[in-house]
Amino acid sequence: MIVCHCTQITDHDIHAAIDWMRAADSQTIITPGKIYHALGKAADCGGCMPLFLDTMRGNAKVSVPAQLQNLRKPLGQENSHEGRPNRHRLPQQGLAP
After folding, report:
1. pLDDT per residue over 19-38, tens digit each?
2. For the chain, which residues make up each domain, given as ranges?
3. Rounded CA gap, 15 and 82, in Å?
4. Which of 28, 36, 38 is nearest to 52 (CA)?
5. According to a count of CB atoms within 10 Å of the terminal CB, is the N or C end of the chain lower?
6. Residue 2 confidence (pLDDT) above 90
């Protein structure tokens, strides 16, 4: 089935790229961009992205490796400013006349 008409990518191409990437590096995180790159193509209009992602998710080898899951720690209230400590924030007083 053709998934991307602009670049002529089929579901078979996507699965083959995923299989190749997983065989080459079992730790890699597979993204649509990496699949396009592996196929020597680039996204064009983006209209295929929902079907492209569904096709990717249908492949059991696309999941994030277990040892790479849950590495990100949830931000607490004290670090809710993009991960920067509060001491780096501008004071709110005196900014508005």
Report:
1. 999 999 988 889 999 999 99
2. 2-65
3. 36
4. 36
5. C
6. yes
